[in-house]
Amino acid sequence: MLKLVNVIKTFGDIKALEDVSFDVGDGEFVFITGPSGSGKSTIIKLILQQILPDSGEILLDDYKVGDLKPKELSKMRQKIGVVFQDFKMINERTLGENIEIVLAVAGVPQKEWKDRVTHVAELVGLGKKLNYFPLQLAGGELQRGALARALVINPSLILADEPTGNLDWGTAEGIMDLFEKINKEGKTVIMATHHLGIIEKHKKRTISLEDGKIVSDTGAKKDFKKHEKNDEKESDKD
Hints:
Layout: E1 2-11, E2 14-24, E3 29-33, H1 40-47, E4 55-60, E5 63-64, H2 70-77, E6 80-84, H3 95-106, H4 113-123, H5 139-151, E7 157-161, H6 169-184, E8 188-192, H7 196-202, E9 205-210, E10 213-217, H8 218-237
Parallel strand pairs: 3-8, 3-9, 6-7, 7-8
Antiparallel strand pairs: 1-2, 1-4, 4-5, 9-10
Helix pairs in contact: 3-4, 3-5, 4-5, 5-6
């Protein structure tokens, strides 16, 4: 699904990412965590090609992201749904219209919009609020609306950048339940978060960053232990 290979990114004298490598398989749920400034959001922006790495490679479904032509990049982005901490809703548009904008940008025929929007709104529990404006919605509703907007193009990968950062614990848990549900339906989820309570409760693979470097990867540890056991079995056979 996704692979970062020896990625380095600097901003002036600041090294945001230093030799970062990891891969995420289809259907995985991965937390990327670390203190502010550790590189979490930089990884999200690099995957979306909002910024480019100084060196290294980013591969999505075996395509090198930095080499994609504009049309290819647009097609690739249709595989990715994005959820931000600050919702990024247009206040002058209703929730339904905010979701439709994604379909318009993706080039989805307008005759499909109503069914798609209704489906994702029902999925996140906002079926009766499509005609509400963002300022009429609570924080948790806005985040569920942002998730609906990410899902409406039926992406294979969901990128979430601190999606619970502005929410209280109870509301955040409701959002996490939705992410769990989406993941169980087969979508890959990569979530940048510093919310340790959520990480500890949901027990997913966790990649921890510090000063732009990976300091731990629970998925990698599990794989290493698995290989160790396999090696031990092979040694026993010998």
